[in-house]
Amino acid sequence: MTVPTRRRAARLLVLALATSMLVSACGGVAADPPTSGLPTPSATSAAPVASGAASAGGVTVSGAPGAAPTIAVTAETAAVQELVVKDLVVGTGAAVPEGSTITAHYVGVGGSSGKAFESSWDRGQPSQFALDRVIPGWTTGIPGIRVGGRRLLVIPGAQAYGANPPSADIAPNEVLVFVVDVVSVP
């Protein structure tokens, strides 16, 4: 082997070792990025959240899927600037497509107040929503969840009701927290 060939081989070996160490440190090869442009859940859980709790964006959620969750917010929640999407339970049914209509149980909580302003569980029946007629945080954050799943959405004020909330229970530009259990996609 000539000197230039040995140098080239040595460089390739060093590059291969560095790449191997980087992949090992990151826990494996990264998955392909999503092609739909939708946010991907920041974490998923194949098992229901029964007695434990899950958290994201300063929000902690506990309770069994299918039942009204318990939601706690922190000061971190009120400062959320980007949509947080986290699957608390991965459903086993069909994935919700963009622009579809869903039937879901949900609860909405103010990110500053921590108070529930809306709950289908309080009414005793799920509600139906056309995803092209809801707040932007739902339009963007719900597609991709599977029927039977539970998803946490922490929605910045600009993707919620902005400066004109529909109720005195929601402050202008308030971060909103929703826990959504998808029952069906008609």
How would you describe this protein?
It is a single chain. By secondary structure, this protein is of the alpha+beta class. Helix content is 20%, strand content 27%. The chain has four helices and nine strands. The chain has helices spanning 3-25, 75-78, 120-123, 136-141; strands at 53-56, 59-62, 70-73, 84-89, 101-110, 116-119, 127-130, 150-155, 176-184. The strands form two sheets. Strands 4, 5, 6, 7, 8 and 9 form a six-stranded antiparallel sheet that branches. The protein has a three-stranded antiparallel sheet with strand order 1-2-3. A hairpin with a 5-residue loop joins β5 (101-110) and β6. The termini are far apart. 30% of the residues are buried.
List key phrases describing it.
alpha+beta, 6-stranded antiparallel β-sheet, 3-stranded antiparallel β-sheet, 9 strands, 27% strand, disordered N terminus
**Averaged pLDDT:** 78
Sketch the topology as an H/E string, one letter per element: HEEEHEEEHEHEE
Q: Compute the number of strand runs.
A: 9
Low-confidence stretches: 2-51
Q: How large, in whole angstroms, is the Cα Rg?
A: 21 Å
Terminal residue distance = 68 Å
Sheet having the most strands: 6 strands, antiparallel
- Proportion of residues in helical segments: 10-25%
Query: What's the overall geometry?
Result: globular
What structural class should be given to the helix and strand makeup?
alpha+beta
Give the count of helical stretches.
Answer: 4
> What amount of the residues lies in strands?
25-35%
